[in-house]
Amino acid sequence: MTLFAREVTEQVRVREELRHRAYHDPLTDLPNRAGFHEAVARGLVLLDLDDFKHVNEVCGHSVGDEVLRLGGDEFALLLPGKRGLAEAGPLRRRC
């Protein structure tokens, strides 16, 4: 029996660093356009809330203001991590 082994730690580190550079701004380290598009492709939920005034009345205006407002009563949720449709379904029903 012959066994071959090769250390790949450095290759993995370099690959991860290149991926990070491809998707993050070098000055701010925030996601760049490509990183944003990748995140949107993984999980974006658009909501159109009926009677959003009720949300402000029940939760307060500060809560309503913390949500990304696209216009009127439309909102966007960018799901963190690698979520797919199976995980987004229960979240959509809760909203």
From TrEMBL:
Q: Which residues form a coiled coil?
A: none
Q: Which Pfam families match?
A: GGDEF (PF00990)
Endpoints of the signal sequence = none
Q: Which domain of life is it from?
A: Bacteria
Protein name, as recorded:
Diguanylate cyclase
Annotated GGDEF domain ranges read 11-95
Q: Which InterPro entries match?
A: Biofilm_reg_signaling, GGDEF_dom, Nucleotide_cyclase, Rev_trsase/Diguanyl_cyclase
